[in-house]
Amino acid sequence: MPQLTVHSAGPGVTVQDLGRPGWKAQGLSTGGAADPLALLEAAALLGSDPAQAVIEMMGFGGVFRLDAGTRIALTGAKMQADIDGEPITPNATHFLPAGATLTIGGAKQGVFGYFACAGGIITKPVMDSRATHLTAGIGKRLQAGDMLPIGEDPDRMRPPQKLTPEDRFSGGVIRVMPGPQTDFFAPATLALFAKTSFLRSPRGNRQGIRLDHEGGGFSTEGGLNQVSDLIVPGDIQMTGDGVPYVLLAECQTIGGYPRIGSVIPRDLPKIAQAAPGTKIRFQFLTVEEADATATSQGQTLRALEKMCQPMVRDPHDIADLLRYQLISGATRGDDLERP
Amino acid sequence: MPTTEPELRPLGVDGILVRFARRLTSQANKSALDFRDRMQAADIAGITEVASSLVSVRVGFDPDVTTRQEVAQAIKAVLAVHETTVAGPKRLWRIPVAFGPAYAPQLEEAAALAGLTPAQAIAEIEAAIVRVMAIGFAPGQPYLGMLPDHWDIPRQSSLTESLPPGALITAVRQLIIWAADAPTGWRHIGQTAFRVYLPETSQPFAFTAGDAVQFHAVSDSAFRDIQGNNDTNGGATCEVLR
Q1: Interface of A with B in 87-116 (CB under 8 A)
Q2: What is the SS3 assignment for B234?
Q3: pLDDT value for A330
Q4: Closest CA to A203 of A193, A215, A211, A213
Q5: A41, A184, A321, B158: most buried, per Cβ within 10 A?
Q6: pLDDT-derived band of residue B24, with 50, 70 and 90 as boundaries?
């Protein structure tokens, strides 16, 4: 079985997939990738199963080697990356030869970067998923010396692909739908919330991110005595002092702080990928408008597959062109006819 | 019959929350658990999740298969059926707690908010047989209730950054055996050595919603002995009642 060796890793590097749905009543949130869209992008590029596990890197990557050549893709946050010193582009497939060194640096845009191998990471599943869930004690952060089994590349000769995803690293207007507690807030508080400009705080992780703003907090009458209730990722929770947190994949399942609304799943990757300091504003949708944005993972994957294009390398972009054997590949010209 | 009509509210683009009350009552909790059971038994196409909380149930659906309107109608049809009578608890857990100052940094403060001395507060907690009203926030973590009315004390406005696992904490007439690695606004009034979630075992979750729980005080030194003994789960016993 091919192995992926971690030679170094940033502090937030974990194995993730699309998570573990169905355990909410036992207190275990779905978890999985903080930006699930990036997993679908990797699956579209590599022609692989979107349920496969990948490596998620929060803010900073690491150094990796494989003992068998495989196609790889980097999606999500834009991180500086190279194979044996030669820079590679994100949102494209690349061949990582056996023994070559893949170095992934810090995020230049976005927060959560993903490194996918064509055959997926095939660690032992726990409750039908390979996703690390740190707050639930499932899996752990990766560190130097870790070895992970990976699946064989099912289609090594598949032509390289590239994809130009929609920008989701610059914050902007985030759409919110009403939730069970939206009407616990006074209309004036809701109006103020929709007018306020927020900055993504440096405080944030896979559970949620804090938003900073000027002015007072957003509170409800009797907010601290409210009965705890079910949460979904995307919920915007107001803590005791009325500071908003947007909850992400690894959030708790029940919470007592009032929630003003819920970021629609389509826009949640923009929240996850907003680097500290990114400007964010919220726009309330009606329930009907929000429902109209619901897209299944299958639909999203098919749309991404259509966006993939074959990658043609322009010799102008190859920094070390002279290193390549450009002429010794000449043949007799009848290769295709020979058996 | 519930005293008020349950509220149906959106919770995500693929879910409806059915809320039986805006305040926690034993009746609302019973209605929620009962509705959960009947909704699960109804086995409706396109429903992906039926998860209960203290006073509410989330019904998740697949928007590719069904619509919010159809799911709302199915929910109303189940609600229209009379509730079944829920029998008493199936199991009674007895769990030791240390209440010494080192193990209960906010006992005095919480007791004062409830209008009690620390000794009275401990006696009332020992006397209460609470029920697992919901499991959540962290894996296996129980919301236990309800304590008498004067325990309706609010959460703190500032968060406690972290608590030891097994901490006994309180707010709004409930107790929690803490299992999360997260900040909380609940007050820390005692310490158990009980683990509600054992991910490495075949039965990872100790409690089932509906279980009864009674706490009893032990001295700090007896508690340290319990902590050092791995043969039991925090010195707890579990009696099957029916």
Answers
A1: none
A2: coil
A3: 53
A4: A211
A5: A41
A6: confident
- Exposure string of A11-26, with b = 16+ CB inside 10 Å and e = fewer, is ebbbbbbbbbbebbbb
Chain A residues close to B144, C-beta within 8 Å: none
CA-based nearest distance A131→chain B, Å: 14
Residues A81, A27 contacting (CB under 8 angstroms): no
pLDDT in tens, A283-297: 999 999 999 999 999
The beta-carbon neighbor of B156 closest among A126, A240, A287 is: A240
- Letter for the amino acid at A33? A
Does the CB of A239 have a partner CB in chain B at under 8 Å? yes
Interface of B with A in 67-126 (CB under 8 A): 68
Enumerate the CATH 2.40.100.10 domain ranges in chain A, comma separated: 172-292
Identify the CATH number of the domain defined by range A172-292: 2.40.100.10
ipTM: 0.88
Q: pLDDT grade, residue A116 (50/70/90)?
A: very high
Find chain B residues with C-beta within 8 A of A22's C-beta.
Answer: 49
How near does any CA of chain A get to the CA of B92, in Å? 19
**Residue A56 contacts residue A11 (beta carbons within 8 Å):** no
Residue B93 has pLDDT above 90, yes or no: yes
Q: How many residues does chain A have?
A: 339
Domains of chain B, CATH where assigned: 7-80 (3.30.1360.40), 91-240 (2.40.100.10)
CA angle in degrees (0–180, nearest 5) for A27-A224-B145 = 50
**Shortest Cα distance from A242 to chain B (angstroms)?**
9
Tell if the pTM clears 0.80, that is, is over it.
Answer: yes
Q: Choose among A302, A281, A310, A301: nearest CA to A213.
A: A281
Between CA B177 and CA B187 the distance in angstroms is 12
C-beta of residue B49 within 8 angstroms of C-beta of residue B57: no
Q: Give the separation between CA A16 and CA A133, rounded to whole angstroms.
A: 9
Q: What is the pLDDT of residue A316?
A: 65
Give the residue from chain B lying closest to A298, CA to CA. B64
Instruction: State the Cα–Cα distance between residues B71 and A199, nearest whole angstrom.
Output: 37
Question: Taken in order B9, B47, B201, B216, is the CA torsion positive or negative?
Answer: positive
SS3 A128: coil
